[in-house]
Amino acid sequence: MNDNKSLDCIQKEFWASATNPRPYNHPVVRIFAEQRTQFILQILGDERPNSALDVGCGDGFGMSYMNKVAARLYGCDLSLSMLKANPASRESLLCASAYNLPYADSSFDLVYCWELLHHLERPGAAVKEMARVSRKWVLVCEPNSMNPAMFLFGLIKPIERGLLKFTPGYTRKVLADAGFEKVKQYHVGLFTPNRSPMFAAKLSLKMPYRVPFFGLYSINICRKKEV
């Protein structure tokens, strides 16, 4: 990676012509996403958002499955190539930066991102924007660099180098600095969607989804204060 370029610039150039190694409907991706959305439903309990915004929705990796969580789903991403690969309706998608979301305050019940923040130079600024356009919840899913396999992945994959600092504690700090006093954090997952073979995905279905401290990912949910 070019050390003279900012992280945001490097990421923007890379994703301008790239998409995820596997499409949203790949069977391994499906298992990964369905496990995650089912867990999110458990976290929310009886409360269900009517509307949700996927920030950094990309090629539909999470958005294609989060319709089980919210009745009305919208997405935005800075990469046109990713948006073109997204199967959602064109009316529900916008090309936009996570630092400047083109939506009014309190537009959505839930605003979330899947594996976005570690690609950003200023993750806290993005979370503040997510909080601004949310009415109730902000949900953040990020890699857990305390997992040795995830840490190694960040070392050998230059475009993923930003995940190295995303320990559970760092993710909590980003959310706290954005104004959230209470963060519910869960460590989850035993395989990755873009690299793991099918047998690993199937094996994970027989194992607990929550993996204390060393899960490959952290799922973090915050509720906005009542005004």
Report on this model:
By secondary structure, the protein is α/β, with parallel strands linked by helices. The protein has one domain (7-223): Rossmann fold (3-Layer(aba) Sandwich), CATH 3.40.50.150. It contains seven helices and seven strands; from the N terminus they run H-H-E-E-H-E-E-H-E-H-H-E-H-E. A seven-stranded mixed beta sheet has the order 3-2-1-4-5-7-6. The chain is globular.
Keywords:
single chain, 227 residues, alpha/beta, Rossmann fold, seven-stranded mixed beta sheet, 7 helices, 7 strands, globular
- Cα end-to-end separation: 44 Å
Structural class: alpha/beta
Strand content: 15-25%
Helix content: 25-40%
Tell me, what's the shape?
globular
The stretches of 5 or more residues where confidence is low (pLDDT under 50) are none
Order of helical and strand elements: HHEEHEEHEHHEHE
Supply the CATH class.
Answer: Alpha Beta
Q: Averaged pLDDT, please?
A: 95
The number of distinct β-strands equals 7
Major pleated sheet: 7 strands, mixed
- Spatial arrangement of strands, main beta sheet: 3-2-1-4-5-7-6
CATH superfamily: Vaccinia Virus protein VP39
Radius of gyration: 16 Å
Count of separate structural domains: 1
In CATH, the topology is named Rossmann fold
